[in-house]
Amino acid sequence: MALYHKLGQIPNKRHIVFNKPNGGIFAEQLISSEGFSAEYTLTYHHHPPTLVTHIGEIFSVAPQFIENDLMVKRSFDGFDIKPAGDFLSSRKIVLGNNDVYIALAAPVEKSSDIFYKNSQAHEMIFVHKGSGILRTMLGQIAFTPGDHLMIPKGITYQMSFDDTDNRLFIVESFTPFRFPKKYVSNSGQLLENSPFCERDIRVPNQLETYEELGDYKLLIKRDDKLYTYHYQSHPFDVVGWDGCYYPYALSIHDFEPITGRIHQPPPVHQTWETNNFVTCAFVPRLYDYHPQAIPAPYNHANLDSDEVLYYVDGDFMSRNNIQKGQITLHPMGVAHGPHPGAVDRSIGKKETQELAVMVDTFKPLKMTREALNIEVADYFKSWM
Q: Which of 101, 164, 177, 350 is the most buried (most CB within 10 A)?
């Protein structure tokens, strides 16, 4: 997302002296992507962001993939993930491959002293239940249910919650999230045919700045390991920044659906694209208005994508007996479609109130042991 933003105090030119009021010079840091060839942000710190006092424990967080037949339609009860821990320790990866990890979390701790930086992947955190503050080195973003929190690789952050009943759906991408090309002009503006626009994007505000020195623990993820770094300077000692590389929020409730006379294909629901998968948002919308339209989706075999659907709320019109937080996995090359009775139920209906998030990967996914523990038995038979 190449939308320029700035916050706090910055000098009038890049890479020049920026004096502190009481003497000394603020330390400048360039946070850049794709070397120095893509989006970047310049940050200005009370202290150099290099004051590492020691490196502690290094431990593996690699997902435990299992050998299992994923040419079978499967489903998982996401709310069976047990509530525990904070915004980081509660995460359980359930599906993944070399391009993407898909995780669930149910944090019960309202806050944490731990700072976190994912130097391995860009993150999309979908807030299913809970509200609070995403606290980052670049400022705060308040969140509520329905928010997609987009956190680029390498941005230090914490999450604090207002209560203990929280549910998150997390997608880690090893390539950046981008708005679909079909939504964006050549100069980077979201087009009129996009289902959301710049007004819907919530950028960081209320910059937190701490000047004091001490012992601050930062967990850095890289190569499926967490490295425990101890810094002398506070991770949130930024006095100002500007650029195009920063976290932001987009609510699923601000996604404006595209509808038509006959059933529209899933790409009209698209939110982001990466090199290796796309994401979509299914939201309340009017049904197709051709007099003989069948609003329920047609049977289809997506030959090039594994389809993961995370159910958020409402009565999902094409499925029977689907619960909030449930995940379905429909593998590439295997036909799937509306459950028995869904076609007849949909005819003549005027609208749907469903909410769901979809991830379509271009390579097959693998299950983890965590997924095995929450699997819905014999889901593939539910079309009988």
A: 101
Give the containing element (helix H, strand E) for 346: helix 342-346
Residue written as token pair 């698209």: 270
pTM value > 0.85: yes
Whether 318 is covered by a domain: the verdict is yes
Task: Report residue 88 as tokens.
Answer: 């980081």
The tally of domains found in the chain comes to 1
How do the pLDDT tens digits run along the chain, 384 residues long?
679 999 999 999 999 999 999 999 999 999 999 888 999 999 999 999 999 999 999 999 999 999 877 788 999 999 999 999 999 999 999 999 999 999 999 999 999 999 999 999 999 999 999 999 999 999 999 999 999 999 999 999 999 999 999 999 999 999 999 999 999 999 999 999 999 999 999 999 999 999 999 999 999 999 999 999 999 999 999 999 999 999 999 999 999 999 999 989 989 999 999 999 999 999 999 999 999 999 888 898 889 999 999 999 987 777 878 899 999 999 999 998 888 998 888 898 899 999 999 999 999 999 999 999 999 999 889 988
Q: Which amino acid, 241?
A: W
CATH number of residue 356's parent domain: 2.60.120.10
> How far apart, in whole angstroms, are the C-alpha atoms of residue 118 and residue 360?
22
Residue range(s) defining the domain that contains residue 361? 256-376
Q: Is the separation of the CB atoms in 338 and 318 below 8 Å?
A: yes
Q: Is residue 372 part of a domain?
A: yes
Supply φ then ψ for residue 382, to 5 degrees.
-70, -5
Specify whether the CB–CB gap between 345 and 339 falls below 8 A.
Answer: no
DSSP structural state of residue 226:
E
Determine if residue 223 is left, alpha or beta; phi over 0 gives left, psi from -120 to 50 gives alpha, anything else beta: left
